């Protein structure tokens, strides 16, 4: 981004007692007719089944949330260490980080495509094929990482210049970007390995690896920046070394397991082509999301500094709340893929219904809390009265949109788990096409102050998310999505 339990559950394959489909086996009192042993009646079968499904979801979602939170800590650690060097250094590192994370963000498909591919084969009891799918994802990550690293090193001056950097700031940005490039293949290997373990129903190992990686990153950066006097380049080197350490741990865990199941470790051409085909669709989906976010920032910039500042604060809250929803979506990817691979569409449907309820419930709860906190939240970040008022307006809209957020994140995870990458990418383009005219209307109206942020977030938090929700709900209106395997 191992616990002994996580490693055993992945290696044992179909006989794993923690597999969620086991709740449907004859040992279930509801199906076997075995009466309750206690003299006190237990909960009704339906309630018991829901509790079992809930426990299964939480067993994957909670560690996934921890790993997701650990990743931004790399950026926070880099910022804190570089921030004491000077303003130019901080600005340059921030610019380099933006370019790097944009590239890595577009490669998130390496995790999202590997998870359902591995999970389907794992659910079907084909551990060798599951590990082979993971191997293909790792080789694709290594190849893409090598190409992007070489291109990034050569293009660093042009990329930072295109972002508007000049002078010392550009020099530090180039340093950060270039010395991050040796670690780029490792970053992508970590994505693919994380997706493989998620497909094997193990989200605890990525949490442990991510936590260890964060700790080593802090130590390495401190030593290289201050001890060795390497300035901004030192923090990039430290992060690269930490990422290679994480990648090495993952390879040490996965390669012996693959050999034990007779999986050839070399690249497989057909497997790489299949992984690349699914990945290209998911990359297009991610690109449409990025365009929506960047277009929103562009409009916010044109509406004035106060609007841009308030939008950034509201978007930060949106991103923070998205971590919990993304953890639920990751659980959906792993569980839906596994149950469809095991030939349990009824259980996949029940898991979908349960996670949709959880997503909506989370949205209602966080929306209510956010609505109450909206008038006061801006004061935590800025003393400027105009920005605080605009932030409150945006947070009220975000509060109203939270149930939509929950629905969208969960259904996105469900369809990724089903391998429905092509539909998701096309639906993303449709949603973007519906959203951009709304942004144009906000820009043309040229509102100011709190009204600007209110209308901007009405377009994004309600209009864009509603378009995404509509396309996702349309897809799951029947069971055809369960057979939409892209690889």
From TrEMBL:
<feature type="transmembrane region" description="Helical">
    <location>
        <begin position="57"/>
        <end position="77"/>
    </location>
</feature>
<comment type="similarity">
    <text>Belongs to the multi antimicrobial extrusion (MATE) (TC 2.A.66.1) family.</text>
</comment>
<keyword id="KW-0812">Transmembrane</keyword>
<dbReference type="InterPro" id="IPR002528">
    <property type="entry name" value="MATE_fam"/>
</dbReference>
<feature type="transmembrane region" description="Helical">
    <location>
        <begin position="358"/>
        <end position="381"/>
    </location>
</feature>
<feature type="transmembrane region" description="Helical">
    <location>
        <begin position="176"/>
        <end position="195"/>
    </location>
</feature>
<dbReference type="Pfam" id="PF01554">
    <property type="entry name" value="MatE"/>
</dbReference>
<feature type="transmembrane region" description="Helical">
    <location>
        <begin position="207"/>
        <end position="226"/>
    </location>
</feature>
<feature type="transmembrane region" description="Helical">
    <location>
        <begin position="315"/>
        <end position="337"/>
    </location>
</feature>
<feature type="transmembrane region" description="Helical">
    <location>
        <begin position="423"/>
        <end position="442"/>
    </location>
</feature>
<feature type="transmembrane region" description="Helical">
    <location>
        <begin position="89"/>
        <end position="112"/>
    </location>
</feature>
<feature type="transmembrane region" description="Helical">
    <location>
        <begin position="393"/>
        <end position="411"/>
    </location>
</feature>
<feature type="region of interest" description="Disordered">
    <location>
        <begin position="1"/>
        <end position="50"/>
    </location>
</feature>
<feature type="compositionally biased region" description="Basic and acidic residues">
    <location>
        <begin position="16"/>
        <end position="34"/>
    </location>
</feature>
<keyword id="KW-1133">Transmembrane helix</keyword>
<keyword id="KW-0472">Membrane</keyword>
<dbReference type="InterPro" id="IPR044644">
    <property type="entry name" value="DinF-like"/>
</dbReference>
<protein>
    <submittedName>
        <fullName>MATE family efflux transporter</fullName>
    </submittedName>
</protein>
<feature type="transmembrane region" description="Helical">
    <location>
        <begin position="287"/>
        <end position="309"/>
    </location>
</feature>
<feature type="transmembrane region" description="Helical">
    <location>
        <begin position="232"/>
        <end position="255"/>
    </location>
</feature>
<feature type="transmembrane region" description="Helical">
    <location>
        <begin position="137"/>
        <end position="156"/>
    </location>
</feature>
<feature type="transmembrane region" description="Helical">
    <location>
        <begin position="454"/>
        <end position="474"/>
    </location>
</feature>
